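Q: I'm building a small set of examples for a reading group on sequence design. Run inverse folding on the following structure and report the sequence directly after it, with nothing in between.
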């Protein structure tokens, strides 16, 4: 039995309305520390998402998602409750009513722009859970967020689609590549001072890895996309393309294509 499975069994045996579950989460959060207990957080989302209609876990998810950065600061055990609950919100999306689905999408949107980096990661993981269950729902959410052009929301969408199980369907991989295009265009439009802002740096980091996942799923269209951006005269854009080319999922599996795009970069 995996670590995540063992945690699922422990969580399922606890009453969400009692303090026992919260104490387990806090005690085994691994915070403060460099790496939170991601297996425990995922197990919590698994169990809550598997409940009928999200009850009785929904009230707990609401409460923990509402923890502010003052109440649950970065690297504090309390932050872990927020981290786990945001993922669980995504797990609850499929079986929820339309009104609750809208509420969940808004909760994830707020989390995507949170000052806490783990909360932003949790937002992307929550979106991935939505996408695994219903890719069309993830597309609808992505369209809304992309339209508003908020940098941290763009990054969350990029990271959400960078999930191989979602990209197994060609149309979904193609859609993910269109999200990369929207994000790259947005970054390309930023001036030098704008790119120094923290939110722009977060988006840049997302662009250095997410497209490589899309390209690995759809190499013909993906490498054509990278080659087009490799011809940019913007050194920031070129560095983003180069970073994607260095990812093992491309460098090892498609060395000739990587070399071709690399030649465009150097031209």
């Amino acid at each position: 039995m995996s670590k995540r499975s063992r945690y699922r069994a422990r969580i399922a045996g606890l009453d969400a309305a009692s303090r026992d579950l919260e104490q387990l989460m806090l005690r085994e959060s691994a915070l403060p520390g460099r790496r939170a207990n991601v297996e425990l957080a995922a197990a919590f989302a698994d169990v809550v998402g598997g409940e009928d209609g999200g009850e009785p876990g929904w009230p707990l998810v609401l409460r923990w998602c509402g923890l502010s950065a003052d109440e649950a600061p970065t690297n504090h055990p309390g932050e872990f409750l927020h981290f786990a609950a945001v993922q669980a919100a995504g797990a609850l999306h499929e079986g929820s009513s339309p009104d609750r689905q809208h509420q969940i999408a808004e909760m994830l949107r707020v989390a995507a722009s949170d000052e806490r980096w783990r909360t932003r990661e949790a937002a992307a993981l929550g979106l991935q859970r939505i996408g695994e269950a219903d890719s069309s729902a993830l597309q609808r959410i992505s369209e809304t967020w992309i339209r508003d052009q908020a940098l941290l929301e763009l990054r969350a969408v990029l990271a959400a689609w960078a999930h191989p199980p979602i990209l197994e369907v060609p149309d979904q991989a193609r859609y993910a590549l269109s999200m990369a295009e929207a994000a790259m265009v947005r970054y390309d439009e930023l001036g030098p001072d704008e790119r120094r802002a923290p939110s722009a740096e977060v988006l840049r980091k997302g662009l250095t890895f997410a497209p490589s996942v899309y390209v690995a799923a759809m190499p013909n269209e993906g490498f054509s996309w990278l080659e087009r951006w490799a011809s940019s005269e913007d050194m920031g854009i070129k560095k983003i393309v180069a970073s994607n080319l260095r990812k093992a999922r491309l460098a090892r599996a498609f060395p000739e294509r990587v070399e071709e795009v690399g030649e465009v970069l150097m031209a």
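The radius of gyration is 19 Å.
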